[in-house]
Amino acid sequence: MIKKLTQIAAAMMLVSTAANANEQTVYQFPEVQSASVSQLQTLEKDSVEYWQHVSGKELKRGVPVFVNQADNFIRIAPKARFDSGEVFKPHGLQLDKLSVRDTNFKQLPMQAIAAREQMQNAGFSDGSVGLKLGQINGRAMLKTSQALNDNDTYLVHVIEKGSRNALHAKSQFKLKQHQQRLAMQLSMGQKRFKDNDVQLTLLAPDGEQLDVGYENGEAVFTYPLETIGAAKGYYELEANVKTKINGQIVKRSIKMPFVHSSQTITMDNAKIAYLGNNQYQAQVPVQVTDYGRYAIRATLTGKGTKGQRVKLATVEVAKQIDNQDQFMMPFSVTKAAKAPFELMDIELTDQTRMLKFAQGQ
């Protein structure tokens, strides 16, 4: 009977331990951790390519392409479209049905780079084909004699590797909640763009296309953004520019991701207690705006023999939080130190929405 009661008690302890583990996950790093690297605030990228979506009707009629150097590559790919809940996949393209003509309808020499089978072997499994223009005059008309459906959609992707006319973009990566302007500087060498040279497209993490304009180096959103954090992916700004360089038209596209951020968790002053035997516990009250899983990482510090602040141990704790709650942070210390004990290098994380916040920033 005693043995059976002991087994029941042990089982109850295991259940209780599991419940506590589910309530809060604790990890102490083997060594004291440095303060986290400052978060990315701006993003810079260059582009020597552009892309556009065209219909089957446009491709049969002729689509202008802009190429300015001998090292060029044009990829044309069918893109699936959705209509009334159904998916429609366009016809694959036949390379021998494509041709390129100048503005006077004279056929230009072109080199077939890869048919669908070769493109698939190279990793393009979307039914695309590739070609290269043999004569460069800045503008040409790409067309097909293939019987395509008028409403089908195709991607035309032009790449000019190593081009001197690279589009440079520098944009704000972290946008605070309720802001409707995001800094986005676009340039090509010494050339700066007018507002009407730039067409922007804004895609939400769920794929919805939102209204956006370009004004004096900023993307301006018609309505406030809704999705907070990056759990479903980033927002994405796509910029398309067309300008003249040395008398030739140059076209470029670039995509710039950014995260829409809000301070979803805040903390009050921590209370630190000594538990004996070099064990400490910090009680950190927090408040969150939305239910989710949150974490705190912090380093316990004390005073050294000469009065200097000494870092003792780094602990990370995570748990589900609904509204107001507290983290209980246990520290096991091997170094000797004196009061007052404080937390430093505090980092709060909204794990549900993939957001980090350095305390005091």
Residue-averaged pLDDT, rounded?
A: 87
Low-confidence stretches: 1-22
Shape: elongated
Main beta sheet, described? 6 strands, antiparallel
Total individual domains: 3
Give the C-alpha Rg.
Answer: 29 Å
End-to-end distance: 60 Å
> How many beta strands in the DSSP annotation?
30
- Say what the CATH topology of the largest domain is: Jelly Rolls
Helix fraction by DSSP (H/I, runs of at least 4): under 10%
Oligomer type: single chain
Structural account:
Mean pLDDT is 87; it is low at 1-22. The protein has helices at residues 2-23, 56-61, 116-121, and strands at residues 25-28, 42-47, 49-55, 63-65, 73-79, 81-83, 86-88, 98-101, 110-114, 129-133, 140-144, 153-159, 167-172, 174-176, 181-188, 191-192, 198-203, 209-210, 212-215, 218-221, 235-245, 248-261, 265-267, 271-276, 279-288, 292-303, 309-321, 324-332, 338-350, 355-358. The chain has 361 residues and is mainly beta. β26 (292-303) and β27 (309-321) form a beta hairpin. The strands form seven sheets. Strands 2, 13, 15, 16, 19 and 20 form a six-stranded antiparallel beta sheet that branches. It contains three helices and 30 strands. The longest helix has 22 residues, at 2-23. It is elongated and about 90 Å long. The protein folds into three domains: 49-159, Jelly Rolls; 165-261, Immunoglobulin-like (Sandwich); 264-358, Uncharacterised protein PF16024, DUF4785 (Immunoglobulin-like). Helices cover 9% and strands 52% of the residues.
